[in-house]
Design a protein that fits this description.
Blueprint lengths: L2 E6 L8 E4 L6 H12 L7 E4 L4 E2 L2 H5 L5 E5 L25 E7 L4 E7 L3 H12 L2 E6 L2 E6 L2 H8 L33 H13 L2 H7 L4
Parallel strand pairs: 1-5
Antiparallel strand pairs: 1-2, 3-4, 3-5, 6-7, 8-9
Length: 215
């Protein structure tokens, strides 16, 4: 049995896992095993590195004398970046918003308000600064956004790593109804599947041409 220590590059090497390489027939099968261990969506994106070079063959991994680094597209894993934010309110007054001081003489009130004159532009500035995935926090709610279609496709494809569920952080949670089937239920609910047998045809071009004149 050939056991090697592998760890996610970007994390401490002490968090390594022991992998039995004797069960791997080739490098792709080793990538599949590693993807299952760490929840990596696309095994093909995994690369292995020693302290000095990339390991492109299974024999290279087997002969490594130090813990092997697991990288994704050659990069280290890291937390999703984003603006630091302010205590309690997070990024509400910065990054995705512009703030101003509003004064109401009638009630002697002064308040710090936020407006969103250029939502897409503000988001784009964050993408330019932090990369294709950003994290913002508003009043305790964390939101992840991306402008990369490949990343969006991964997140929107249901499977063992991602699902579309209305949890307690979702704005529709108070009216969640799995039996309604559209917009206010989880996609794993039976009602969602039933409704979507009929909904797409009803919104298709042929159906729209039929009922548009009447509407």
């Amino acid at each position: 049995m050939t056991t090697k220590q592998l760890y996610l590059y970007g994390q401490d090497a002490s968090k390594h896992i022991d992998v039995d390489l004797s069960t791997a027939q080739d490098l792709p099968s080793l990538k599949d095993a590693i993807a299952g261990q760490y929840g990596i969506v696309r095994p093909d994106d995994i690369t292995f590195q020693s302290d000095t070079a990339e390991l492109t063959e299974l024999s290279d991994v087997q002969s490594a004398t130090s813990p092997v680094k697991i990288t994704i597209d050659g990069h280290a894993v890291r937390e999703v970046p984003g603006p630091a934010g302010l205590p309690f309110i997070g990024n509400y007054l910065e990054g995705t918003a512009q703030s101003f001081l509003c004064v109401c003489p009638r009630y002697s009130l002064t308040a710090l308000c936020a407006v969103y004159p250029d939502h897409l532009g503000n988001n784009q500035r964050l993408f330019d600064k932090y990369g294709p995935v950003i994290k913002t926090s508003n009043m305790g709610k964390t939101t992840y956004q991306t402008n990369d279609s490949d990343i969006g496709m991964i997140a929107m494809t249901e499977g063992e790593n991602f699902s579309k569920e209305i949890n307690s952080d979702h704005p529709l949670f108070p009216i969640k109804n799995d039996q309604a089937g559209v917009f206010v239920g989880d996609t794993s609910a039976s009602g969602w599947g039933l409704v979507h047998k009929f909904l797409p045809p009803a919104l298709g071009p042929k159906a729209v041409r039929h009922y548009s004149p009447k509407m």
